[in-house]
């Protein structure tokens, strides 16, 4: 278990040291926002279908 925690910590440390250029960061954020909006829309459609039946 300690070994897993150590590996996780070192992986997080390495990941935080990687420099992401602002353009890629913005693209990822937009992608995440779009994905979230699509999920919300699908959920709303699902609820409407459930209520109408």
TrEMBL record:
Top-level lineage group: Eukaryota
Keyword Acyltransferase: no
Gene name linked to the record: pln1
Keywords associated with the record: Acetylation, Endoplasmic reticulum, Membrane, Mitochondrion, Phosphoprotein, Sarcoplasmic reticulum, Transmembrane, Transmembrane helix
Membrane-spanning parts: 31-51
Family from the record: Belongs to the phospholamban family.
CDD domains: Phospholamban
Protein name: Phospholamban
PANTHER family the record matches: CARDIAC PHOSPHOLAMBAN
GO BP term (any one): negative regulation of calcium ion import into sarcoplasmic reticulum
An MF annotation (GO) of this entry: ATPase inhibitor activity
Subcellular location: Endoplasmic reticulum membrane; Mitochondrion membrane; Sarcoplasmic reticulum membrane
